[in-house]
Amino acid sequence: MKFSFSLIFCLIVVNSFGQTDQQRLERALFNLPNISFSDVSKLGEPFLTYDLFVKQPLDHQHPEKGYFNQWVQLRHKGFDHPVVIETHGYEMGRGRNEVEKILDANNIGVEYRFFGKSVPDSMRWKFLTIEQAAADLHEVNKLFKQLYKGKWFSTGISKGGQTTLYYNYFYPEDVDVAIPYVAPIDNAQEDTRIYTFLDTIGKPEFRQKIFEFQKFLLMNEEKALEKMKWYTKGAKLNFSYTGNLAKAYEFTILEYPFAFWQWGRSCDSIPTNKSLDTYLDELLKTSKISFFSDAEMKKYASHYYQAQETGYYSYNIEPLRKYIKQFTTNPSAIFAPKSAQPKPFDNDLYQNFQKWLDTNGNNILYIYGGIDTWSAARVLVSDQVNSKSFLIPGAHHGSARIKNLPEEMKAEFTGKIQEWTGIEANTEVLRTK
Questions:
Q1: Is the dihedral angle over the CA atoms 174, 178, 184, 187 positive or is it negative?
Q2: 110 in helix, strand or coil?
Q3: Alpha carbon distance 405, 395 (integer Å)
Q4: Tell me: the pLDDT tens digits for 100-151?
Q5: R_g over Cα of the chain
Q6: Helix axes 276-286, 245-262, angle to 10 degrees
Q7: Using CB atoms within 10 A of its CB, is residue 12 exposed (0-12), middle (13-18) or buried (19+)?
Q8: Cβ neighbours, 10 Å, residue 129
Q9: Spatial CA neighbour of 317 closest among 308, 326, 309
């Protein structure tokens, strides 16, 4: 059933929008098929906000197999403004994105299928695929192109950036420009480029300091586990998925260098005083044992299931083999739900997608961080396409953003947008006081 708190006969003017514009938007939303919507606008915001649920097929090739409702959020600036379709890789994020701001654009955020509020009545894992998720975005695009006739952009961060790229691969005519952030495209379920990155990033003395930190924690595992028992009990953490606390502890140590560079931790934060409490404090700040708890496995089950298809990473135990007690081979960082059948990495999809990126992946502006571990799997732009990659020196997974582009890169970035769309992007709006 369609619904709105202020449909057609709204008597209240929201923010700076006139009644006519709001009425026009709500009439248009009301006439779109297979959606319900509600006005969640806040006073003082320079846009109208609507939560929508779009009825999506579980299988776009066979709609008779059932449906689920996908959460979509619209921030409306005006019918004559450009549109950004924000491709979330997980549950919906409510914050405004940079691309929306610099273009003064309408924003359509789409929660990824089988995450957050966008889940079917029963989890039918086989329908959680890259291709089905791209088809969801295409359906949203078709709906809203009835309202917005200007230029369209897509953007997303991390897995959301991945989603933007796959969406453009399957539906290259949907948007005019794609802007993925920190988007890794892994080449296997165990992408060994991660190992090369961690073996070469930063100064040798920094890498040695990380190794000594891990070594100390492994050599003192028995004492550490006694302390961790109290910590995990207080935090109400269970580890039946990984097997036991000892395995979760070693996973956390193995994850440390990945997380260290991913989030741009300072080498000054790595202790050298041989105090176990200090070492454990740094470990828990950086890689977090809760990441390997049953609660996190349940929360990110859909992510791990799909990582089997898209590729991911494992932990190289070779440098620490003599100190490792729980593993004899490289353990995977994929913790697929046990209720689902294992899913192989789709090498054919990867090869076809990579070929498309190299030969037809045009009008894409990639943003990566120079020290982000995920940059090991970044897209290397071919000279056969009209796209550009910006690798920001010293930036990590959370800071590789338009606002942190060096001025020369920023000028080239906005220049490409104007060249491809005729729109002048205003990055000054990203400056913070």
A1: positive
A2: strand
A3: 9
A4: 999 999 999 999 999 999 999 999 999 999 999 999 999 999 999 999 999 9
A5: 23
A6: 70
A7: exposed
A8: 19
A9: 326
pLDDT-derived band at 94 (thresholds 50, 70, 90) equals confident
CB 5 within 8 A of CB 38: yes
Contact yes or no for 360/121 (Cβ under 8 A) = no
Give residue 213's pLDDT: 98
Report CA-CA distances (Å) from 226 to 229, 291, 318, 366.
5, 19, 26, 45
Average the pLDDT over 13-17 and give the result: 46
380 pLDDT exceeds 50?
Answer: yes
**Exposure of 234 by Cβ count < 10 A (0-12 exposed, 13-18 middle, 19+ buried)?**
exposed
Residue 2's pLDDT is 46
For residue 30 the two structure tokens come to: 């009301």
* List of residues 6+ apart from 91 with CB closer than 8 A: 111, 112, 115, 116, 117
Count other Cβ atoms within 10 Å, centred on residue 150. Answer: 17
User: Is 260 within 8 Å of 197 (Cβ atoms)?
Assistant: no
| Residues 6+ positions from 81 with CB-CB distance below 8 Å | 103, 104, 105, 106, 148, 150
Angle 72-73-74 (CA atoms, 0-180°, nearest 5)?
A: 120
* Spatial distance between the Cα atoms of 177 and 195, rounded to a whole number of angstroms: 32
Tell me how far apart the alpha carbons of residues 65 and 1 are, in angstroms, rounded to a whole number: 21
Mean pLDDT of 89-110: 96
pLDDT at residue 383 greater than cutoff 70: yes
State the Cα–Cα distance between residues 192 and 310, nearest whole angstrom.
14
Average pLDDT, the chain: 94
pLDDT of 12 higher than 60: no
Both tokens of 62, joined, read 């066979």
384's tokens: 């056969």
And the tokens for 267?
């080498």
Distance from C-alpha of 364 to C-alpha of 417, rounded to nearest angstrom: 10
Nearest to 416 by CA among 389, 384, 383, 382: 389
Per-residue pLDDT tens over the stretch 202-229: 999 999 999 999 999 999 999 999 999 9
